[in-house]
Design brief:
This protein is an alpha+beta fold. It is built from 11 helices and 19 strands. Strand 5 and strand 6 form a beta hairpin.
Length: 350
């Protein structure tokens, strides 16, 4: 047993070349403390300078597997072989990295400064979220976080050039998420991964509130219009569902919106009779068309060529599939009208 430097000098090799040549024979010793080392010292006292033992650990990473350990000298220093911590590829040695988990190496304490918002017991490190997004997405792809919390996912995705959607039911959208995202956009958020990715600010986001359910069941299990909706809310919601622009007229009661200059929509909770529909048809005239959405009607709708008549619950059910759990979130046509307080929030990156 000789130091590697002496072997290299004797053979006229560089130390690097010597490591490669004697890869399987090179080791170092360490004074590793363990209960089994004490027993080895007692068992081999005075019997030599180099020992090996075989045993099966009862715990640890090698539990229930036979292990061979080597010891050197009267103090029984544990030998660590180079071949256990590196591999040889041609004329190069490559150090093996210790296997770990994705939770290792990320800051789990002192996260209060990230994003400039307080979120005790709930905030995730931006570096950890960055790793997850890197593993699962490419730039410009979508990232969805159904529980927005403090806004970490959206903030990190934005800095990484991903598009994102966050959903939050609580007040965190006002107290945490919106203030945090504004700092990301204007570049004042230089915590978290900002410096690592060279973030200087930019982009934008849109903020929406999800309205309450438009329909509900009455005591007979029939679908009826939700009582939370007033006339204006109902007209606006149905315009959106039917693809009309909500633009109520100040002078013509049956013009709640339009799809073209000659095609209009009228929303009412009344039960329309044949005479009322006839009056509507006469007012609309032959050069315009009108979609009538009502709670019920008593007439053959095909009698009026310029009218299309639909019952509201049926029209909404056909669009929204109430009672199903397989919705697809269609965000490209969401309304940008100012939201009312107290409703749910949805965020989307522009």
């Amino acid at each position: 047993m000789q130091p590697i430097s002496e072997v290299a000098e004797r053979e006229g090799l560089s130390e690097e070349a010597c490591y490669v040549k004697y890869f399987e024979k090179i080791f170092r010793d360490t004074n590793a403390q363990s209960s089994i080392r004490t027993r080895v010292m007692e068992a081999v006292k005075g019997q030599g300078d180099f020992f090996s033992i075989e045993y099966i650990p009862r715990s640890g990473k090698n539990k229930n597997r036979e292990v061979t350990l080597y010891y050197k000298g009267s103090n029984c220093d544990l030998i660590a072989w180079l071949s256990d911590v590196a591999i040889k590829k041609g004329s190069k040695l490559i150090k093996l990295e210790k296997a770990g988990t994705y939770w290792e190496g990320f800051p789990l304490n002192n996260l209060t400064k990230e994003g400039g918002v307080q979120f005790p017991q709930g905030k995730k490190p931006e570096a950890l979220v960055q790793k997850v997004i890197e593993l699962a997405t490419e730039p410009d792809e979508w990232v969805l976080d159904s529980f927005g919390g403090s806004g970490t996912t959206g903030s990190v995705a934005h800095k990484m050039g991903r598009r994102w959607i966050m959903v939050e039911l609580g007040e965190h959208m006002h107290t945490h998420i919106i203030p945090r995202l504004k700092k990301v956009i204007d570049g004042t958020d230089q915590g978290g991964i900002s410096k690592a990715v060279g973030w200087k600010g930019g982009g934008g986001f849109r903020y929406y509130r999800l309205a309450p359910s438009l329909l509900e069941k009455d005591k007979w299990a029939n679908w009826v219009i939700n009582k939370e909706y007033n006339a204006a809310m109902l007209a606006e919601a149905l315009c959106k569902l039917e693809g009309f622009t909500y633009a109520p007229s100040d002078s013509i009661y049956w013009q709640h919106g339009h799809s073209t200059e000659r095609d209009f929509v009228y929303v009412t909770t009344a039960h329309l009779t044949h005479d009322q529909l006839q009056q509507l048809s006469d007012e609309v005239g032959s050069d315009r068309t009108l979609l009538v959405l009502c709670t019920a009607f008593r007439a053959r709708p095909d009698q009026f060529p310029n009218l299309t008549v639909k019952k509201i619950p049926k029209a909404v059910l056909s669009r929204c599939e109430y009672g199903h759990d397989d919705y697809s979130l269609q965000v490209e046509n969401l309304s940008q009208a100012p939201p009312e307080p107290g409703q749910q929030a949805l965020f989307a990156e522009e």
